[in-house]
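[job 4471] stage=fold_predict status=RUNNING
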Amino acid sequence: MITVNADGKIMVRRCLVTLRPFRIFVLGIGFFTLCFLMTSLGGQFSAKRPGDSPFTIRTEVMGALESRGVLRRMSDMLEMLMKRMDILARLENSTDFHKGDEARFPLDRFQPAAGLMERIQAIAQNVSDIAIKVDQILRNSLLNGKVMEGRRDQCEVPRDPKYPDCAGKVEWMRARWTSDPCYAFFGVDGTECSFLIYLSEVEWFCPPLPWRNRTVAVPSPPPPPRAQAAFRRDLARLLELIGTGKESLSFMKKRIRHLAQQWLRAARRLEQRLAGRQRDQKHILVHIGFLTEESGDVFSPRVLKGGPLGEMVQWADILAALFMLGHSLRVTVSLKELQSHLGVPPGRGNCPLTSPLPFDLIYTDYHGLQQMKQHMGLSFKKYRCRVRVIDTFGTEPAYNHEEYATLRGYRTNWGYWNLQPGQFMTMFPHTPDNSFMGFVSEELNQTERQLIKANKASSMAVVYGKEASIWKVQGKEKFLAILNKYMEIHGTVYYETQRPPEVPAFVKNHGLLPQHEFQQLLRKAKLFIGFGFPYEGPAPLEAIANGCVFLQARFNPPHSSLNHEFFRGKPTSREVSSQHPYAEDFIGKPHVWTVDYNNSEEFEAAIKTIMRTQVDPYLPYEYTSEGMLERIHAYIQHQDFCATSSLPPSPKTKSPAMQSSPSPLALSPNSTHLVWSPSAGWAPQVWPPVASLQVWVSEPQHTCTETCRRQGLVCEPTFFRFLNKEEAFLQLSIACDSTEYEMNHLYPAVADSVRECYLQKEPLLFSCAGHHAKYRRLCPCRDFRQGQVALCRDCL
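[job 4471] inference complete, writing structure tokens
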């Protein structure tokens, strides 16, 4: 008996010593039970949860049947624990253990035992009650599952003329539904009904199934008023949004910080001019595709080695402008972030987004556009009208229209997107079919301008080109020798250990300079000279803004995709007559000189004249911060490509571009061109306003871009639809023996030799670009604001 009692005492002592860990164990059992019940019971209502499959009832029921046994085992286990605790309590009552060991084990260590047992007993009873309830729920679920199974077996492909593609899509799903995990994500399980549910509820190729539980449509309440955009007073939050981890991002953030005060002053001025106009705040995603790892990101590693910075300059300025205008931004430079922001389902990109696109606008580039198309499925076609593509060299309509580009030989690696041409946004206003985005240059105050004029060295030249490869141009020795006779030549060519051999010994090379040091060098120099490459970068404008004269080579013949490797494959037929056509055409002398470098006499004469000429720092308004803010504000407020975009028309039906109605145009007083008639009695609500429209006829072999520029105007492709009518030819006294509708990016036009007139059949092909010796084209032109070619006089 003594031995038995001693063993009992030892058991009780161990139980009491381990009482608190045991409490934790019991709490863990309770927590596990709660989590398990939430999972099991939640599965019964999975069809009501967003993102869960509406086809998994049978699977979840089977899983829950197994869980019922687990619940019973848990109940049994808790009951067994309760019995053992009851045994320990009886042992406690039959011993005098307290008397001997009271010093080591205080009495208050025993008191929680009774309460703990009561709790265990209560938990066991609750688990038992829950098991009974779960059993009832599962029985009902099994019954409903059998009904659903019967319905699933009864699904047939509907024959509805409103959904002609349904049968073909179902056939495709039968063969390929396992090709992408996204189908299973949306609940496709290989059954006929799952195909039809997916094709009617996720996509829209089949009619809804009548037996599906669908809530009765009720009129949705009007959307709440949108938040208003307010000009911002600080750029710190933008710097956080841009993020870190890449040299390219560091460069962009440094640029934004450097120009921060310039942006703030410009925002205050524009805010005063807009005089409190209401501006809806837009939700905007900025995805810089060329900086993603998936696209190769060849730019970031070259930021500190003299690589091209023009694209990053422009992106930094776009971000600053959008942010200062008060819009809500998200910035991504990775594919994973893009997928997360868009709501891309898991898989290979064949399915639509999981929810409506949360962004009003998306600014990206060609790399980002390709990534979006690969991962958005059918949603890309639905939402592509919200995309704005930053496109340095432009995309002409002939290359943008997929069918036309394929048939006529205009297809390239970068075109055929079937976007509205205005959705492409360029660095310079060289392609009126596209929208001019631009960038900004550093602005000088009056004191800085006076210091530059006082400190200019009349015999100092800086060469445009940071990479040694630029100095390999043929014939450079000849014109550099002439320049060296008159000026001290400076370079900013990157090198690591030794001087690049391509740079002549008489050139003072500073190496790659930080931006502010490069600006100081330009403020001292008289001349900024280009070797013909890179094309259309920001540096010449920066040099002119700092009081330099820009000297560049004339290309004869002009460079284009037909004769120059750099432009080959780009979606444009534009002919580039110099290294920087904007500087040549929009600025010109005395700030810009374009000469034939192969003509030594012309080159030397230009150098002598430049040294004698005094020029002040000059920056076109459209490249100031205020000019860029004004332009982007106008685009965001007025450009709506979702309202105007349409599918290509059927060849059996007339295109909207071909509809004939009385012409609202009238002959101008001098009978040279057409204008919008004041007596038309109506004016469509379009942007730009039609009051700025003038219709001119080109000469053969001239583009509409050239034709309008000769009249001091700008070609405006938005207006083509108003002159794409037979009446326009009659009003201009053009005789037409016949009139035909065709897809051709040169139409509307007239072939005088055969007296045939042609109207445009496809609105996406309206184009300011293109010419032919056979045709004289009808060209829509408009006026523009001084220093802001992108906007007409009344466009704000």
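[job 4471] summary: The longest helix spans residues 112-153.
[job 4471] exit 0
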